[in-house]
Design brief:
2 copies of one chain form a homodimer.
Chain A (H helix, E strand, L loop, with lengths): L8 H12 L7 E2 H8 L3 H13 L3 E4 L2 E4 L1 H23 L4 H11 L5 H10 L18
Antiparallel strand pairs in A: 1-3, 2-3
Helix pairs in contact in A: 1-3, 1-4, 2-3, 4-5, 4-6
The first copy, chain A, binds a DNA duplex (30 and 30 nucleotides) through helix 3.
DNA sequence: CTGACATATTAGGTAAATACTAATAAGATT
DNA sequence: AATCTTATTAGTATTTACCTAATATGTCAG
């Protein structure tokens, strides 16, 4: 519990982009990430190598894919994000602001703790953006 | 609104310690901070210089004091901490865990947003630790 | 007032994260 | 094969966050 590997905001952002592309036909290339993150390819490469060291991605011939553990972590962060957003909006916060704040903290909080909150607030099926919240346990 | 100067976790920790000593007879020395943070004096000095650059502390003859702006920021972080803690505990989280999590995010969220939550949850006068929550506006 | 001890500061070094440019290598396309 | 697009390597810079060792500045006991 709460023994998640520490990641940085940038690593989180890359993980989210990679996860969001999971169902697409083509794997994510360096240039794609470079465009989406507005960072030069060498910077992205550096970032991906760190995610590789942490066991979250695998790279082959320029293509990058999430490992099993990367997918798990991705899902946990997305769930954290949506639950936190829900909690904040339920307590009077503006949706846009809640989203930005959530982006900055969703990867810092262990999923187990957030999951407790999820149970407590009545397992809402959707976040304020209308996206599904699927409870995730590995 | 939400245009607070960015600080790091370590800067936050130092700010909190300095703020907690405000009412004491003697100002905080380098060794005191060094002891409380379990870091060597040169490391602390480095940290304090950054806080000085950000306008939060002033240093004179080895003594360090919070500036007006430093006190404001200190109070905002403390309030954020207590309100977030209250919110989390109210939603099923264990107090100790809520405290640790809050420490990691209280300095990342703008006070104005947190203040909205405070109003919404009925302006509780105490945090789960039993400490006063004083609404703070500059 | 002077030596000894405590404290502060400077200097210098290391490492990780976050960026960049420029150069090279490798692939793909025409 | 020549070109264009990507990927990778090499090298540089900044910020944060640490350290040790050396020096300077206080302070306090005698």
């Amino acid at each position: 519990m709460s023994d998640e590997i520490r990641i940085t905001k940038k690593e989180r952002d890359a993980l989210i982009i990679l996860g969001n592309h999971i169902d697409e036909e083509f794997p994510v290339r360096l240039v794609d990430l470079s465009d989406e993150m507005s960072l030069k390819p060498p910077t992205i490469l550096n970032l991906l190598k760190r995610l590789e060291d942490k066991g979250y991605v695998e790279r082959e011939k320029g293509m990058t894919v999430l490992t099993k553990s990367g997918v798990s972590r991705y899902r946990e962060i997305v769930e954290n994000h949506r639950i936190l957003e829900t909690l904040m909006v339920k307590n009077g916060m503006d949706l846009d602001r809640a989203c930005v704040i959530s982006e900055n903290i969703d990867f810092l909080i262990d999923h187990e703790s957030i999951d407790n909150i999820f149970e407590k607030i009545g397992k809402p099926s959707k976040c304020p953006h209308g996206r599904k919240i699927e409870q995730f346990h590995e």
